[in-house]
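Lecture notes, structural biology module. Today: joint structure prediction for complexes of two components.
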Amino acid sequence: NAGVTQTPKFQVLKTGQSMTLQCAQDMNHNSMYWYRQDPGMGLRLIYYSASEGTTDKGEVPNGYNVSRLNKREFSLRLESAAPSQTSVYFCAGDPGNAANYGYTFGSGTRLTVV
Amino acid sequence: GDSVTQMEGPVTLSEEAFLTINCTYTATGYPSLFWYVQYPGEGLQLLLKATKADDKGSNKGFEATYRKETTSFHLEKGSVQVSDSAVYFCALRYGGSQGNLIFGKGTKLSVKP
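The predicted structure, tokenised, for the full assembly:
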């Protein structure tokens, strides 16, 4: 099915380990986003990419890096995982910057750092 | 800055009850407004939207009207079902380079049979 695909769906890391969360979309979206969702905090924007080749920091970028590999793929990397990064991570795509469009979200990656 | 405020949950209702989830916003311009729904264990899905004042968005029996005079976009449904149990997010966005979605913190709805 067309949409936004995230891998893996679940992951457990030890403190200090690194990993990359993958996101791919087949909707020809220009913009892509990474959010984290924590209880009582709603969704917080980590990084976004307005177009291929560009990335920008969001509200909570510390401890993360991103790569917009091509138009389809936008990965999120944790270089040295910390327990505070235990969260559910969502990737989203957006066809453009038009106000009347909403985002399409992936199903999430549930990350636990022990 | 621009922001979205939702009523705090959780909201617990019996099946067939009337639902209102309040959403108000602070905006410097005239954004589009959205409601997203997140079912347990899933990502967010767009439920409905309205792009200008007095527009009504509707989907799956839910509706919300863009009220510029009260800066509100309250979500309503006349008769909820157990399957409506989810977290609901209100959001706004502008177009152009500053067009990222701004979300409220979400309201959890539980519907009991």
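Point to remember: The interface with chain B takes residues 4, 33, 40-43, 45, 48, 50, 58, 90, 92, 97-100, 102-108 of chain A (CB under 8 Å).
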